[in-house]
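Task: complex structure prediction.
Instruction: return structure tokens for all chains below.
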Amino acid sequence: MERRTVYVGASSLPRVKISKDHPRYRSLVTRERMAAMVEEGIVSTTGLIAHGRGEAFDYLLGETTVPEADLAEKAAAAWLLRAERPVITVNGNAAALAAKELGDLARATGALVEINLFHRSEGRLRKVCDLVEEEMGMKVLGREQDAVLEGIASDRARCTSQGLLAADVVLIPLEDGDRAEAMAKAGKKVISIDLNPLSRTTLAAEVAVVDELTRAVPNMVRWANELRNRPEEAQAVLAAFRNQENLAAVMRRICRGLRKGTADRSER
Amino acid sequence: MERRTVYVGASSLPRVKISKDHPRYRSLVTRERMAAMVEEGIVSTTGLIAHGRGEAFDYLLGETTVPEADLAEKAAAAWLLRAERPVITVNGNAAALAAKELGDLARATGALVEINLFHRSEGRLRKVCDLVEEEMGMKVLGREQDAVLEGIASDRARCTSQGLLAADVVLIPLEDGDRAEAMAKAGKKVISIDLNPLSRTTLAAEVAVVDELTRAVPNMVRWANELRNRPEEAQAVLAAFRNQENLAAVMRRICRGLRKGTADRSER
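Output:
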């Protein structure tokens, strides 16, 4: 986490000094880091807008891992451990926010990592692959895409035959709705991480994690380490998890927060 | 509105073709326009994230002007008409989204326009002033800031003595919470336009418009034209408007949408 606080402000703007005592310190530092990552060519401008959408939903959740999210993260870890060919997809925003942590999760669960950009160009793909491999300390798939995912018309269908195409369980942090639906249709077990509880990505998932990425992934690593040598407990977690009920509980929680006005901690 | 559809995609990215039949056409075109405006130096990268936060709340409202917003827009128009020294503040995001429409509102209500950037630099201030004056076809205040707003420590306190400092009623689209609170403390009647129903800006306002800027402003112009020569009706609107009740109704509406899952039209 230490490296992350280096980025406080995009270089074209006056550097922003954020007090560690600020109640929203973490969110503000993350925001500045994302802005800086646009200049590095890792995050696209529309990726920055998507980050803002996430901020709004996170704000309604109180910027904390709610109990429903913790439960989904435990189930997600159990699914990844149980999978035969688990794959974690990483796009520009996921790379900018949590490359190192996603690498930890891949190691903890034996998953492969595949880079999959929404706004794809050769140059950007290379940059993101380089960043992610450096942060993770491991090789990733996706520099050469030799397969396509059915049901997507554009070149966003592109993937690798070794990775996404062959996967039985896929973890898709911050993924696009079209791709999430295509993966579900292809019979893969989809685990999403998306702060919007109503997004098509969330709705396409069998395990929908509604949580902020940099909180969700370390918690999933913790659960994976806890469940790794306890297959019976992992099995019990999977059997007990009810995704739709869990999502409905998240909505009720957001509504309670809206009614009480508890989310009024924004600096905006 | 025709000019607005010109910007579809930032120039550094593959141009995005958006079908007019897409249910979220308007939101997607606006998003691409905002991304393009970053490259022009009008919108800051953190402004882009703020736009994303707005998108999320708008999405929960169904991307429509809800009845509570229409009511607040009518009250806002009545207040601007009744004011002795109304001022409309314009920052980078407001300039990028609705400069022309805000100019129409200034003319319809006799308000002055003052440019007020959150991430201020001389170069950016000049660019935004030039853009807004061209789009509005009128002079704006703010190139020379000769006064400060009490209660703000940074240079974000800067304003003009002729404009903001002397105003009795201020319309503050997409404004920062600190400045909104400082204006309220200075005794000004604050009218906000902010999609976050719980933001400090919304909570500081006496008339809080929870609506998307490009929908809200033309509707306020329409109400201003309707009420201009009917002072008794305008007075009745002001007397009847209950800001807190109106905001509470917006929250209930968002909750109903969340429960029904009606906001699941996102492409994300």
